Amino acid sequence: MELFSLAYIRAVAAQAGYQVTRDETDTGLDGMLIGGIGSRPVIAFQAKSTSRDIRTGDHLRFPLPLNNYEILRAESPFMPRILVVVLVPRERGQWLHQSEDELCLRHCAYWLSLAGEPAVPNTTSVTVHIPTTNVFNGEQLRLLMRNAEEAAL
Predict the structure, then answer these.
(1) CA neighbours within 13 Å on the CB side: how many for 48?
(2) What is the mean pLDDT of each run of 10 residues along the chain (153 residues)?
(3) What integer pLDDT is reported at residue 116 of this predicted model?
């Protein structure tokens, strides 16, 4: 599932005109989304995936390991950090459909910024609530990158 979620993020980034890099060292983050030539906004991300039904009304309830929560909520003024959760079908054979005309990755990915969230007394995980309006797609990624670039100025 981890490799599929990274492939999903790379596909969205490529369509939006951005690059994805992976860090060779274990920083607790899975990679960075990087802008094109002439502008260098950067957003670090943690990728997660699940085949469980975590949708509740207008948001997802995702149990995030506490160490990931702490990394994503940490103050990082020059490089925003986001969580990207990719929902996949239960059956691996249904994760994608390919024909001569299309490559369809299923189901959907959502993003969440935890910047400024408070410390919690939990010891293993924190359930985060991701609005279903936060679809990780090209349009929202371009907006996130614009906001990251403006914050770095």
Answers:
(1) 23
(2) 94 95 83 79 95 96 97 89 97 92 92 96 96 98 91 68
(3) 93
Half-sphere exposure of 100 (CA within 13 A, CB side): 0
Beta strands in 3-91, from DSSP E residues, in sequence order: 19-21, 31-34, 42-50, 55-56, 59-65, 81-87
User: From residue 115, how far is each of 43, 101, 151 by CA, in Å?
Assistant: 12, 40, 13
Show Cβ contacts of residue 11 under 8 Å, excluding neighbours closer than 6 positions.
Answer: 105
Q: Both tokens of residue 76?
A: 């990082």
* Residue 40 CA to its chain's centroid (Å): 19
For 22, counting Cβ atoms within 10 Å of its Cβ (0-12 exposed, 13-18 middle, 19+ buried), the class is exposed
- How many residues in the chain? 153
pTM: 0.93
Angle ∠(135,102,84) on CA atoms, nearest 5: 25
Alpha helices in the chain (DSSP H): 2-16, 66-73, 138-152
The tokens describing 116, both together, are: 């400024």
Pairing of strands 19-21, 31-34: antiparallel
User: How crowded is residue 124: how many other Cβ atoms within 10 Å of its Cβ?
Assistant: 8
